[in-house]
Predict the structure of C1q domain-containing protein.
Amino acid sequence: MENYLVVLILSVFVLLGALYVTIVEQKIIKTKDELLQHGHEITLESTRKELTQVKVEFELTNKALIQVKVELESTRKELKQVQVEFESTKKELKQAQVELESTKTEVKEAQVELKSTRNELQQVKVELESTKREVKQVKIELESTKKAVKLVKVELDKIITGPTSIPAFTATLSKDFTPPINQIIKFDSVKTNVGDHYSSSTGIFTPPRDGLYMISATIRSNGGQILHCELWVNDAMKEKLFGSNYSSGTANAVLKLRGGDRVFIQKDFRSGGQMLGRDWSMFSGYFIA
């Protein structure tokens, strides 16, 4: 391609030179014909001048040709540089194509993994739904089992008989005592405590199961004393007791209690009032039905 371009440019300049010489020769012949027609003689001096002029013009043409060659050489160098850059670009393009193919392969593999992960997720969802149904069924069975156990306990309570199966207690006060206001009275001398549901350390009876209970209490005041007490179940006051100057106050109540209730005797809000101990004051209760 490069050699063809050089030959083409040189051929153009040669043709231009030949054309120029032909034109000059035609001018010379025309000039001679004109001189002959007018009867003038062509002198050698005139011909020399014209030849000199032709040489000058030829020299200028030659210089222009040399300049064209210089520019052609520069163009050839630039073309060579362009070819080098073109080869470099081709290599970069080839490398980019290789990387593109690698990326396409990675994308394809990622798509395969994504599809596999989606399938696994779908399977997990199916298993999760199945597990939820199983848990729901287990909960239903558990509730059914709890109900059955509760019924068994009820039947067992009905079957078990004898004095040891009936919650019952009696406790007295061993020493004279002046209880502070709103304080639970601890009957510390335990006489009977079937099932250990009365606590002498707290003064509280805790029924083990729901039912009717007979609860009794007697308080006796010391000489010259006025004593006010109350029977409580949890946060509710049920009955009042009163004693003065060695007299006794007694309360008997049939109460419907629930397992876990707190039953106790408590001093009311009035200050003072000494309670006789030595088993004169007592707290008692037992399960009826």
